From TrEMBL:
GO terms for molecular function: glucose-6-phosphate dehydrogenase activity; NADP binding. The lineage of its organism: Bacteria, Bacillati, Actinomycetota, Actinomycetes, Micrococcales. Keywords: Carbohydrate metabolism, Glucose metabolism, NADP, Oxidoreductase. This is Glucose-6-phosphate 1-dehydrogenase. Catalyzes the oxidation of glucose 6-phosphate to 6-phosphogluconolactone. PANTHER family: GLUCOSE-6-PHOSPHATE 1-DEHYDROGENASE, GLUCOSE-6-PHOSPHATE 1-DEHYDROGENASE G6PD. GO terms for biological process: glucose metabolic process; pentose-phosphate shunt, oxidative branch. Residues 1-42 form the Glucose-6-phosphate dehydrogenase NAD-binding domain. InterPro entries: G6P_DH (IPR001282), G6P_DH_AS (IPR019796), G6P_DH_C (IPR022675), G6P_DH_NAD-bd (IPR022674), NAD(P)-bd_dom_sf (IPR036291). It comes from Rothia aeria. PROSITE patterns: G6P_DEHYDROGENASE. Substrate binds at H33, K37, E71, D90, K192.
Amino acid sequence: MEKPFGHDLESARELNAIVERVFPPDSVFRIDHYLGKETVQNILAMRFSNQMFEPVWNANYVDHVQITMAEDIGIGSRAGYYDGVGAARDVIQNHLLQLLALTAMEEPLSLDSKHLRAEKAKVLEAVRVDDLENSYALGQYAPGYQGGEHVNGFFDEKDIPADSRTETFAALKVSIDNRRWAGTPFYLRAGKRLGRRVTEIAVLFKKSADRLFGKETEVPAGQNAIVIRVQPNEGMTIRFAAKVPGTQMEIRDVNMDFGYGHSFTEESPEAYERLILDVLLGEPPLFPRHEEVELSWKILDPFEEYWEEHKIKPEPYESGSWGPRSAHQMLERDNRAWRRP
Ligand SMILES: NC(=O)C1=CN([C@@H]2O[C@H](COP(=O)(O)OP(=O)(O)OC[C@H]3O[C@@H](n4cnc5c(N)ncnc54)[C@H](OP(=O)(O)O)[C@@H]3O)[C@@H](O)[C@H]2O)C=CC1
Ligand SMILES: O=C1O[C@H](COP(=O)(O)O)[C@@H](O)[C@H](O)[C@H]1O
């Protein structure tokens, strides 16, 4: 079954009940193709097969986490599917919340689907929205330029009604109410016709005290970061400060890089290749169960209900930009800024 599974918690429960009346649970494969991506599977390997990340992977060290899924394409000829669904239901409820779960969950007892799903469900259940009115931004792409070419706005696309309130960009701020993450916000954003196609998870660390170097540095060194590049240019970047060569003790941020292309000769299978193989083999770990789907709707539903109740009109953003002004303001209110991926 392809996502989205239903359009809210109630319809997802209804759909799950119907499906599970007809098929035994183990023969139902809910597809979230992000779980088939190599880089997404690598989140677990990176977190739990290394010693150096886990000690700092918590609110004591992490300032906040940004999960970005940016697309350069518009909706193309998909108005029939996309209008009325929008970015939040299309990709945040599933792909981005799965990325959040894998980034934030505790170590599972084993890689068995039962244990993996239990940990994902636990962390999704702990997700909270503290101040809903100030924890979202919605946008619709306006005409603009992409790759040097003029592109249509959302309302110029075929079959989009002039009064559509469907968002093509959504950003949300959530928190996770557990000991590991209390006080560390997770910002999620997804949108079409943004600056470039990129999906990444950026874990941004608290700034160091800067007692020794701060004054000598013209451009203050930024935050340490670990960036998991889901796509393209799959890999991981660690960003840290280093001394600029020369007589001054000047500090600047530098990147240390791992790229799949350089490190492995093996090919990464396409996400759907991997998932279809697993369906044929009857292997469930890469498929969300109905509990995770329902917990994800529980996170999104209050936003969707608020947008519907207040008839919120998404803010236009220029195609090729990084989303509406309100998305930047959401982070500015917290003295933070979106990374430029
Ligand atoms: N495109 C992508 O990159 C990805 C898509 N998906 C998922 O794939 C699914 C389809 O997306 P996509 O192919 O892109 O969308 P499209 O809009 O291209 O295709 C949707 C198709 O479904 C048909 N359809 C819509 N409503 C009904 C209905 N009530 N009864 C019968 N047919 C209907 C449409 O027919 P008609 O044209 O006549 O309206 C159209 O052929 C979605 O669930 C999406 O989440 C998942 C991952 C990636
Ligand atoms: O599920 C979906 O994903 C695609 C983007 O997939 P990606 O693998 O290229 O990141 C998105 O275009 C589509 O709207 C959505 O339904």
